[in-house]
Design goal:
This protein folds into 2 domains: about 120 residues, SH3 type barrels, CATH 2.30.30.40; about 120 residues, Alpha-Beta Complex (endopeptidase fold (from Nostoc punctiforme)), CATH 3.90.1720.10. Helix content is about 10%, strand content about 40%. The strands form 7 sheets. It has a 6-stranded antiparallel beta barrel with strand order 17-18-19-20-21-22. It has a 5-stranded antiparallel beta sheet with strand order 6-5-4-1-7.
Amino acid sequence: MNYGICSMSVVPIRFGSSDTSEMVSQLLFGEVYEVISKKAKWIKIKCTLDGYEGWISKNQHTEITEAAHGRAKKSTDFSLELVMEAMATNFFIPILIGSTIPEYDGISFQLNGKKFTYSGQVINSKETTSTAELLTKVAKKYLYAPYLWGGRSPFGIDCSGFVQVVYKMLGFQLERDAKKQVNQGEVVNLINEAQPGDLAFFENTSKKIVHVGILLENQEIIHASGRVRIDKIDHQGIYNQELGTYTHKLRVIKRLLPS
């Protein structure tokens, strides 16, 4: 089994082995994966965080040993800066919010034998109490990030990618897509019983889960729809005050944070 780590700011994961194939997700700096198969210019990977599979360009692959993969997947340090550079001996790498900072000692970190200095704000999920207040604070850092199908960065993010990365920084491993995330957590029967930090899932006319967001106080929700935004929510769904209409039909609310 071969392994890899994302050594770039962000790497697109595509449905097929082509530059023109649909982007279905992204790797953020420091995230690791298994190599499933290889083609001339492409590598099929399985993301360690969520088991998601897809293709990345071979020239964006950084191979690591099984031991290095084992250490990196246990990393609990994540960047809280929207963008902050990591400095090596003779170059810089922009690190985006939600990126994993492997083998971090408070000043520097190691990646594939290279040492980087990093002075940005970091959250350690193992040393941090996962509260709704903290989750909300992290989520709001993404406000106005543009919607991008398959995106997981502040420069482009989709609804399930947004939820996944925010929860990742608090130590939770969520599935990549909303239709699978809905199977995680405990059901909240009524919206009046919901708490900030709960996940709200929404269905289309075919009863399929197609959207997810994070509940806030005062019957509001933060979610990625056009951009990361805050809207009102009630038992029917999300109400967009700018459009003056409901945009998403509520299906179920799930709780992952301790009550």
